[in-house]
Description:
The protein has 109 residues and is mainly α. The protein is 82% helix and 0% strand. The chain is elongated and about 60 Å long. This is MATE family efflux transporter.
Amino acid sequence: xxxxxxxxxxxxxxxxxxxxxxxxxxxxxxxxxxxxxxxxxxxxxxxxxxxxxxxxxxxxxxxxxxxxxxxxxxxxxxxxxxxxxxxxxxxxxxxxxxxxxxxxxxxxx
Length: 109
């Protein structure tokens, strides 16, 4: 879809879309790092805990933060996306901690 940014009719649309695209662009970094950490854990033969952490992050962090930021607080679309992308950030943090702990254990074996 092409949007002419010089057309004055699209000014409101651009005001809405540009902040959302900024959030999405930043969150893709965290999502890529989260997938890299997940791959490292798979390499360490750890699959059960990452799956549980993923479920917790999707249901516990993702849905709750989406609801609170997007609907209860009433901040709208950008905050809904921020809430959605808190999930990979939460999961990344815990997956990296898990990988660090497992790599310390496996280096001592």
